[in-house]
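Exercise (ungraded).
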Amino acid sequence: MRAERLKGHLDALLLAVLAGGPRHGYGVIEALRTGSGGRFDLPKGTIYPALHRLEQAGLVRGTWSDDTGRQRRTYELTAAGKRQLNDERSSWREFSTAVVALLEGKPCPAT
Amino acid sequence: MPGDLITRYLDELAARLPRTGRAALVAEIAGGLEDAVEHHRSTGLSEVDSQRAAIEEFGAPEAIADEYAPVAATAQAHRYGLAFMTTGPLIGGLWVTAIALTAELPEFTRIVGGLLLALVLVAAPCAVFSVVATSGPLRVRIRSVVTVLSVTAYTAIIVDLTAIAVLTTLLATTTTIAVIPAVIAGVASATRLVMATRGALALRGTRAALV
């Protein structure tokens, strides 16, 4: 899947990946790839700036950890990040229901 | 030599990143590459091929730098915005004190003062906006924030230069001026002038990098 298509959703996907617990940058990348059945395979290096953007926005917290003698940065969701993820989930549900209704000609359940 | 490919990649990346946060990001990506190389090695690839594969996966340094540019710009706008928000009232207070302690001021200073005050009334909200916009998730384009903050920076330059020029004129021509408070205010303005000039140049560079 093309990176541009994913771009607008990347932040929400990163939050979703981190909802399962704290991860290293590389762990986030792997989770994104495996969680999407290999479809979301972005240039891995661009995930790091994206994580920094989320950290700057107060949605994730990054801390340097030194497990097994290696310096790695671990990310976890903040309370604001959890709230944001919930908002993203409900707005995505609404959006995707409407898109499916139109693209596949199914009636849209009235809300 | 193993390690050369990775080192060259990281050097190229560092050269493209703005100074703010560069070291930390490069260190983090270096760690990620290590993980990736190890993963490929464990699948049976040679050291050099593992490095090549890891670099391939991580993508072009330009792509990483492009993704990072708004992050660095946000941090920069926040920092300069706060700097203007704190120095502004301080410098204003010093000038007001100097004026209050001066017995008599020539008429033209009142007009200049009024004009400078009008400029401050534009610049101050711009600084506040920049700080608020860069706290928490961005809801406006960072390029717009940088533009707005540039208004503050250029205005601060004009205000400080004018204030210092007026002070120099008064010191040369008037005897009624309260010299010590006025000089303190002048020095404060000169210091801020340096900061504002640096800020204006930095923000111009950032704006150009954000396209």
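Further reading is listed at the end of the chapter. For now, observe: Chain B has two domains: 4-59, 73-210. The CA atoms of residues 105 and 174 of chain B lie 8 Å apart.
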